Amino acid sequence: MKAMFLTGLREMAMREIPVPTLKEPGDVLLRVGAVGVCGSDVHYYTTGRIGSQVVEYPYRVGHEFAGIVEATGAGVARVRPGDRVAVDPAMSCGQCDQCMGGRRHTCRNLRFLGCPGQAEGCLSEFIVMPEECCYPLGAGMTLDQGAVVEPFSIGLYAVKMAGGPREARLGVLGCGPIGMSVLLSALAHGAAAAYVTDRIEARLELALKSGAAWIGNPDSMDVVAAIVEREPLLLDVVFECCGRQEALNQAVELLKPGGKLMLIGIPPVESVSFDIDKIRRKEISIRNVRRQNECMLEAVDLIESGRVNVDAMVTHRFPLERSGEAFELVSEYRDGVMKAMIEVCGETS
């Protein structure tokens, strides 16, 4: 089968490798349909690492995907050949203290697709996944929508961690795919108003069309002053989705006393800082969001039911052999890109 590998910084190459085989009763062989290019994939593409996780070349990245079931192990009952499925890229052991405590996403023995030292990614024609990672798609859902389920589930998880936030007034700083997922999830859960910032105008326009109460570009205006003018009592929750120090500073200014700061973005540096006097006096709660936990099924349901429309998030499409172009586009934030999709099997509608 064909597979795309990182071979160096900003270098990718197609290789022929064997089709994987079923080894365990719960294994599912999937024909990969659509693969979304995630910001974490781009970190590996441009720098070869995220923190302590360092790429050893050649390496296959990719973890946001949907596919079609080709074959199943003897113990599989949840899916059958021909089913279209969204895939949770996190493979937990189910036996450690974290798994037993309802925190499978922080499993002590977690294997995550496209994560160095854990599992090869999904930029290939076929892949084997455990049955519990496969979520059947509704008959009317596309594989593109299925691939968006995983990043959307992260936004959904962040919103649930923030407490709802029904009737809350909130900020979304950074409106890439995760920020947009937060926005859509928050509005679906009854948020009163969402204030969205980003440096890419096309993303801001999409946020406005999707229900944001206000949008602003921090490169051309003082977004804190503009939001405070509209919300003098400040915001209940701010979701920091871009991993930038300046956004963290803005979040602290925007939060009301007792407010919640949700950290989702991956910073390009090893440490960040906060104005301790401000966060102490305001008694701001800071929560880190680590991927998602048990939100995939609800994410599928929200998209399938039409309560959330993620179609506009996919702005660019590429075949597998042009994966390098997709990664360059996303890494440079060109052409108003929100989500670049790599369509592997040619059947994504």
Model description:
- The protein is an alpha/beta fold and 349 residues long.
- The protein is 28% helix and 27% strand.
- It contains ten helices and 19 strands.
- The chain has helices at residues 39-47, 97-100, 143-161, 177-188, 201-209, 223-230, 245-254, 276-281, 296-305, 323-331, and strands at 2-8, 11-16, 27-36, 49-50, 53-54, 64-72, 84-87, 90-91, 111-112, 126-130, 134-136, 169-173, 193-197, 214-216, 235-240, 255-263, 285-288, 314-319, 339-343.
- Strands 3, 6, 7, 10, 11, 18 and 19 form a seven-stranded mixed beta sheet that branches. Strands 14-13-12-15-16-17 form a six-stranded parallel beta sheet, with helices on both faces. A two-stranded antiparallel ribbon has the order 1-2.
Poorly predicted spans: none
Mean pLDDT figure: 96
What's the total helix number? 10
How many domains make up the 3D coordinates?
Answer: 2
The general outline is globular
CATH T-level topology of the largest domain: Quinone Oxidoreductase, Chain A, domain 1
Strand tally is: 19
Strand content: 25-35%
**Secondary structural class:** alpha/beta
Q: What's the N-to-C terminus distance? A: 22 Å
CATH class of the largest domain: Alpha Beta
CATH superfamily annotation of the largest domain:
Medium-chain alcohol dehydrogenases, catalytic domain
Radius of gyration: 20 Å
Most strands sheet:
7 strands, mixed
Helix content estimate = 25-40%
The CATH architecture of the largest domain can be given as Alpha-Beta Complex
Order of helices and strands: EEEHEEEEEHEEEHEHEHEHEHEHEHEHE
